[in-house]
Amino acid sequence: MPGTASSVFRDGLLDGQVALISGAGSGIGRATAIEFARLGATVVGCGRSTEKLDETAALCPPGRFDAVACDVREEDQVEALVDGALERHERIDVLFNNAGGQFMAPAETVSMKGWRTILRLNLESVWLMTSTVANRAMIPQQSGKIIRITGSPHNGFPLMAHGGVARAGEENLMRGLAVEWARYGIRCLSVACGPVLTETFKGKYPIDVQQAMHSQTPLGRAGTEEEVAWMIAFLASPGGDWHTGSVITMDGGMDCYRGAFPPKEYADEAARTEERRT
Ligand SMILES: CCCCCCCCCCC/C=C/C(=O)SCCNC(=O)CCNC(=O)[C@H](O)C(C)(C)COP(=O)(O)OP(=O)(O)OC[C@H]1O[C@@H](n2cnc3c(N)ncnc32)[C@H](O)[C@@H]1OP(=O)(O)O
Ligand SMILES: NC(=O)C1=CN([C@@H]2O[C@H](COP(=O)(O)OP(=O)(O)OC[C@H]3O[C@@H](n4cnc5c(N)ncnc54)[C@H](OP(=O)(O)O)[C@@H]3O)[C@@H](O)[C@H]2O)C=CC1
Where is the signal peptide (predicted)? Predict the structure, then answer.
């Protein structure tokens, strides 16, 4: 991420906005924090490791990144995070619920502890962050945008059934809240990503699993963390003001069709499948 300006948006697009980003110490969260800071926002970034957050701060324009150690599963820590952000910055315009994750394992081997670990880290933490920020900042200020990162494809997450259930619940939560909280001027959205080449993704999944995921994508490649950051920045900008309740899917087409096109089994290189009949 060299340079100090966005390569997509105009300078000052997010001037004056205060954004709270979870998991801002690496990957998609870090890329989004940097993009927001470059566009003029003040970012409150949280994660459990202060070292990783300090590295993010060093990549942002000076004074634009406020690092706070917080485990998003813990009620007292989340309340302190939100209260501290309000004390220092007076408002929260955007909440990007980015922290999360899951492990890959056959469903029959997942214990109750493993199941609860993933539901707590993802679905429950998203509710905790969302309800705390809404009650303490966005409902009083009568405005705000809440965005959750979820997953694609949507037709089942083999080997990550627990993660798929959490993400489906999060998307439904955003839809329901979009309706309920429209009266407070709060927008609620999900951005459902297919594989994104973050360090965690590259280190976590075996290379053959990664290649299989890419080859199941019509565009033939994974996404980048910058591409996700641009989408979150767009939604935070006035360009995103009419979006609420939606699930924006970013996955190179994987959710529409699993595989490269044309499919070798059915068509030739020009995608011809049959002769035209007269
Ligand atoms: C194959 C078809 C694919 C179709 C196409 C799919 C395309 C999908 C594209 C999207 C893919 C998504 C990618 C990402 O999200 S990548 C980046 C996200 N980041 C992470 O995932 C973070 C990585 N962190 C971890 O992996 C952590 O270990 C985890 C968050 C999973 C849990 O950490 P925590 O510290 O909270 O918990 P513990 O390690 O103590 O574990 C608690 C219990 O959970 C169970 N467990 C944990 N790991 C495993 C495992 N690998 N296998 C089975 N069970 C596991 C277990 O019960 C643990 O308790 P015990 O240790 O006591 O047994
Ligand atoms: N990469 C991909 O292919 C995809 C990723 N996603 C989702 O996007 C999000 C970001 O993924 P990615 O950037 O790849 O992964 P990373 O592992 O780089 O980012 C996850 C971040 O969340 C933080 N985090 C984890 N647990 C907690 C916690 N309990 N409290 C506070 N912070 C926490 C981590 O920091 P720390 O350990 O310091 O707390 C880390 O910085 C995740 O929710 C992931 O599931 C969705 C679809 C695809």
Answer: none
